[in-house]
Design goal:
It is a single chain. The protein is of the alpha+beta class. Among the domains are: 88 residues; 84 residues, no CATH class; 208 residues, Rossmann fold. 36% of the residues lie in helices and 14% in strands. Strands 9-11-10-13-8-12 form a 6-stranded antiparallel sheet. Helix 12 runs parallel beside helix 16. The radius of gyration is 29 Å and the shape is globular. The termini are far apart. GO terms for molecular function: sulfotransferase activity. This is WSCD1 protein. InterPro entries: P-loop_NTPase, Sialate-O-sulfotransferase, Sulfotransferase_dom, WSC_carb-bd. It holds the Pfam family Sulfotransfer_1. Belongs to the WSCD family.
Length: 573
Amino acid sequence: MAKAFFRLQKFLRRTQFLLFFLTAAYLMAGSLLLLQRTRLVIQQGSRGTSANQAPPVPDGMAGVGIVDPRTLQNPRPSPRPPVGSEAAQEPALDQRHGPRWLVSRNSELRQLRRRWFHRFISDQEPMQTAGFKAMQHPAEHKGTYVGCFSDDSRERTLKGAVFYDLRKMTVSHCQEACAERAYTYAGLAYGAECYCGNRLPAAASKPEECNSECKGEKGSVCGGVNRLSVYRVEELRAGARRRRNVIYRGCFRAPENLTDTFPASLIQPNLTVEMCSEFCSKKEFPLAVIRGRECYCGYPTGRFSLHDGADGLLCSGTHNAEGKYCLVYQTPVQDTRCTDRKFLTTKSKVFVALSSFPGAGNTWARHLIEHATGYYTGSYYFDGALYNKGFKGEKDHWRSRRTICVKTHESGKTEIEMFDSAILLIRNPYKSLMAEFNRKYAGHLGYATDRNWKSKEWPDFVNSYASWWASHVLDWLKFGKRLLVIHYEDLKQSLIPKLKEMVEFLNMTVTEDRLLCVENNRDGNFKRSGARQKDFEPFTQEMKDLINRYILTVDEALRGRNFTGLPREYVPR
């Protein structure tokens, strides 16, 4: 018996030692692997951009969760020379690996998805309701807290302007945004959404139902699920910089029955534009219409679309004695008839791409499509700046089929054939190259400096990206299964007809009033403020010759597939 016990004890000692040895080996192997991966990421970052070439990072992008801060703007695939183009055979234009500052596309996407996943998990952690019961509304919020109110996406409680900041929303930020636009109330929901308005329902919800913490301010409540934390911001008006920028829309023929066309009206002796705009703003209408001493408020509709303007002289007193014409002004109030959006309730059977070369207006097209259809668009990339400003499809996996279409800048047979159909958005390469260069060095809304334009990076950029502009279109024409070609310039000039084409291609039906609402909100949040004029021509004659060859190649390929050729303004410059 003693001998058997001794053998068992000896065996256990050996097993214990073996387990200890295996554990130590496992930990050492894990440490070595971690060091190796860390070194790889650092090497890739150092190959991407030298320290003195790193573009500035916008404030709104800080901490989005991407390893290399120089790649905070959404990653772009490396450009490839167009197939069949003579210019593409030049050794200098073999851009398979792209410019030297570009980081590996696959590495970027892996890092983005990994960091997105961790952030997504952290965002989904359940909130501790007990902790929110003790939350106090901070004293630095100048507005008066009114209470918690219910909110429904189909019938908004506050029907004025809408703002999103899914990372930095605070109570003060929402209050100031609404006060600047002359609204009385500011309401916050889901911790990141801000709504403005001038009227509230009589009944409030239970205070504890507003239990979402503000994304940009720990310890503060920003509404909840279908709940608004509402503040009265009238006290802020005196000190805030009001944005009462009433915009003159023009002179138009008055509809036959003004009272049927416009929901609200006012008759006032000595009526002024400011008086009418103030009245319509309080009534939460985006249009103020003046005919003599009569003021009308409403929306653009089929009966009053604002498409056929008249000579301004016809609205003057001497020419408008019969009151056939009226003056129209845009108030600071946002047209919210088309701002509600959601994910598809069932998975889409058709996988649709919204494809374009970078800088061709893809984000703007997504804004138009989302507001026209009421459904979110997805993205092949995870761009934190776009997500934070309301493009919620950015955080949805691009293959989920819960979005109406998916943004992509990819080209190549494999990447294209993944999609059943595609809207191919094409823009003048001169404008596209400049827009993408601005984005790379100054974000979605900024401008590259003159120093950037005059550096050696700009010629390298043009030589590389001009070929990619052409190859992108040629690849989609060659491998795309079902295409709708939209030219950016045509969309800008004839928005509603072209948007109708896109919506019909997506197999959706929308009302005319919704399309008019989209037209009224056409710019969105990612439009650069005007075209900054430069004191020099950024394109040399050599660059123009190169780009013009690519333009002719693409134009010929489009006509060969029975599509409309490129607009005349493209060729040649």
